[in-house]
Amino acid sequence: MKFVNSACALAAAASCAHHVLAMDLVTSEKLQRDIVGPELMKNLNRLDRIARDNGGNRAFGFPGFTASVEYVSERARRFSRTIDTWVQDFPALFNHVESISFKVGDEDIYVYGLTYSPSTPPEGVTAPLVLAPEGAAGCSVEGYADLDVKDKIVLIQRYACPGGGTLAGRVRPAKLAGASNVIIYNNVPSLVTAGTLSAPDPEGYVSSGFINQVDGERLKARLLAGEQLTAYFQQTQVIQTRITQNVFAETKGGDPNNVIMVGAHLDSVQAGAGINDDGSGTSLILELLTGLKQYNVKNKVRFAWWGAEENGLLGSRYYTSHLNTTEVNNILCYLNFDMVSRGYFGVFDGDGSTHGLVGPAGSEVIEKFFNDYFAKVGITTTPAAFTGGSDYASFMDNLRKPVGGLHTGTGTEQDPCYHQKCDTYNNANATVLTANAKAAAHVLATLALHGHEIIPKNIMLKRQWEAFDGSIKWTEEEGGRHTGTCGHDV
User: Fold this and answer.
1) Most Cβ neighbours (<10 Å): which of 137, 228, 261, 400?
2) pLDDT tens digits, 327-363
3) CA-CA distances (angstroms) from residue 273 to 2, 15, 29, 338?
4) H or E element, residue 446
5) Burial letters for 66-80: b for 16+ Cβ neighbours within 10 Å, e otherwise?
6) Residue ranges in 296-406 assigned as alpha helix (H)
7) Closest of 323, 304, 307 to residue 315, by C-alpha
8) Which of 250, 287, 309, 364 is the catalytic position?
9) The whole model's pTM is what?
10) Active site residue 309
């Protein structure tokens, strides 16, 4: 009996091996055919339900993110015959605003506690509210030379300070000038639901908040009219290191020396479910994986669902900074899909012809593949800028790898629910998502077969890629809200 069972087992193994070898090579047509709208939307429905069942979000450090990791990793592990799946733990700075209040006189005004802001004393701070310098003058302490802001609460508009970011670049000079606190008001009309100082710095920052444009402009007008305003600001923010996760799935087949990486971030902001941002990218690459599992590839394909992206691209930063030299050199290129279910059809400007910032060599090839595909199916594309606001930045900046991908925009016209509670299942557009997913299938299949022939291989010594210091000057996109290191304002 043992002999019979062993023989059957050997026969089954041989049959399985033959089946793997006999799988068809992937093609654009085959992989596109496997991408269907209902499955893409089914994933979004599941992610939306995860958020509803876990306090309304899928943010790093909260139960909704843990459930999202379980959902994606369980789906990927179903394909274990042809796909390897693993989860990478990494430490990341978690923050949670336990209490916050901003009042002017008797009026309560909505305020968002900037990520990594110091706390005020528990009882809060009551002080005169004064205007800061406008524009570039507010980016340096010298701009405050003729203003008395010592021990006062400074009101200032968000602004892209050279080298300092749109938020941190406002807080540091005010602190140096002696301000007790800083209230930044938005420079676009969308509701404020996120904003980060990038990293804790108790010595360089004072406790700061972020308010809506309409409220800031109203307060500014009163101050310019000569009113003497007294404000109250209180914030208690917990900042601590927690362990979170990236999820990876990789084809067993394909050349391991030429890896095509595909990524989307798995976390949402704390304000909402994050279905367009970035449940849409999560669903898109999950369906690419589901289709690809049944085909052979010439180049290995690795899928990544990043954690803690909304806290500053922390998952992809950790991954790219912990690769050894061989692992870095094995990566051929990276495709990013962050917000792909409503707005324009955005293709990253790899050749820099529109926005000026040129991606590493090979990025222009990826851009052309996407643009040619969309032109063929009659869809007009918009060049998407490299703002540094999503995980492609880790591959451009840390590794100098060719990058590309899709992004449907963060402006109020593209997504009025960006980083808000209303970014739920109903915020996604199935037609846009499906069109983007089929374009992604076309480009991925092409690269999985021919990427090693058409994308230049960037081979570096360890001392070269470890020396990169974040020196890329990212594009500042007018009206965009996906900048800096995500969160997305720094």
Assistant:
1) 261
2) 999 999 999 999 999 999 999 999 999 999 999 999 9
3) 54, 44, 33, 15
4) helix 430-454
5) bbbbebbbebbeebe
6) 314-321, 325-330, 363-376, 392-393
7) 307
8) 309
9) 0.88
10) yes
